[in-house]
Write a structure and sequence with these properties.
This protein is α/β, with parallel strands linked by helices. Strands 5-4-3-6-7-8-9 form a seven-stranded parallel beta sheet, with helices on both faces. A two-stranded antiparallel ribbon has the order 1-2. Helix 1 runs parallel beside helix 2, helix 4 runs parallel beside helix 5 and helix 6 packs across helix 7. The N terminus is likely disordered. Bound molecules: NADP nicotinamide-adenine-dinucleotide phosphate. The site of NADP nicotinamide-adenine-dinucleotide phosphate (NAP) has 32 residues, from helix 1 and helix 6.
Length: about 280
Amino acid sequence: MIFTNFDLIYANMQTGKFSNFVLLIKTNKMAGKIALVTGASRGLGKDSVIALANKGFDIILTYQTKKEAADEVVKVIENLGQKAFSLPLDISSTAGFDQFVNEVKSILDTKFNSAKLDALVNNAGIGINESFETTTEEILDSMTNIHFKGPFFLTQKLLPLLNDGSSIVNTSSGLARFSFAGYSAYGAMKAAVDSLSRYQAVELGSRKIRVNSIAPGAIETDFGGGAVRDSADYNNLISSQTALGRVGLPDDIGSVVAFLCSDLSKWINGQRVEVSGGFRL
Ligand SMILES: NC(=O)c1ccc[n+]([C@@H]2O[C@H](COP(=O)([O-])OP(=O)(O)OC[C@H]3O[C@@H](n4cnc5c(N)ncnc54)[C@H](OP(=O)(O)O)[C@@H]3O)[C@@H](O)[C@H]2O)c1
C-alpha cells in the first residue's frame, strides 16, 4: 500500500471476520514520495537527505568526487527504511546534464518503480574567499556555473520529471543578505539564486510546483575549507554576532529543507527562508 501525504490515513483492512475495518494511523510522513538532492555526500546535503528520509521520502542523491561517502549516506537512508541511490554529477558542467537526466529516469523506473520526482533540492556548491579586487574571470565563471547556471539548467531539464505539486528548494546563503569581505562573487550568485527562485515560483505555480530558497548562515561543514568549524577565531566571531549565540550545525538545516519539501509548508512559495540562528539582525 502506498500512503499519501495526509496526517491521518484511513486504511481499509480486509480480514476474514472484519471487512472494511477502518484503521487510523497518525503520521506526517511523505510515503511514496521521491526527492533528488544534489551534493548530498556530506555537509548540508547529507543532513537534508537524512531528514527527508525520516519524513518518508525515498532519495536520489548526487556526489561529485566522493563516491564512497555517498554510498555511506545511501546505507544510512536504507537503514531508516527508505530506498536510496547515488549518482555522480558535476553541477558546473551543463554538458553532462542530458546523460544525468537519463540516468535519473532509469533509476526512477528500475529502482523506484516510478516515473517522477516529488522534490528537487539544488544544494551542491563550494565556498571560496577571494577579494573583489583579485577575483579573476575564471573564479567568477566557476561561481556562476556551480551556483547559478548549473541549478538553472538542471532544474529546467528535470521539469518533465517533476510531478505537478512538487517542491523545489534552491540553496542560497546568508551572504546574499549580509556582506563579509571576500565573498563578492559567491554572495552575488546566491542573491541570483534567491531572485531565480521567485521567478520559478511565478512560472511553475500553474503546475502547483512551489519554489523556495533556503539561506543558511555559517554552518560547521567542509565548506570553504571547514573554516567555520576549524578556526576558533572565526567561529567565535560568528557566534558573537548570532542572536542564539553559536554557529550553525548541519542538522539545523536538513529539517528545514525537509519541511520545505513536505506538505507542512504547502502555502510557503517564492520565499527566501534564512536559517542562521539570527545572524546580524
Ligand atoms: N556551510 C555553510 O556555512 C553554508 C552557508 C550557506 C550556504 N551554504 C551552501 O550550502 C550548500 C552545501 O554546502 P556544504 O556546507 O554542505 O558544503 P560541503 O560540506 O563542502 O559539501 C559540498 C557538497 O557539494 C558537492 N559538490 C561540490 N562541488 C560540486 C560540483 N561542482 N558538482 C556537483 N557537486 C558538487 C560535494 O560533493 P563531493 O563530496 O563528491 O565532493 C558535496 O556533496 C552549498 O550550496 C553552499 O554554498 C553553505
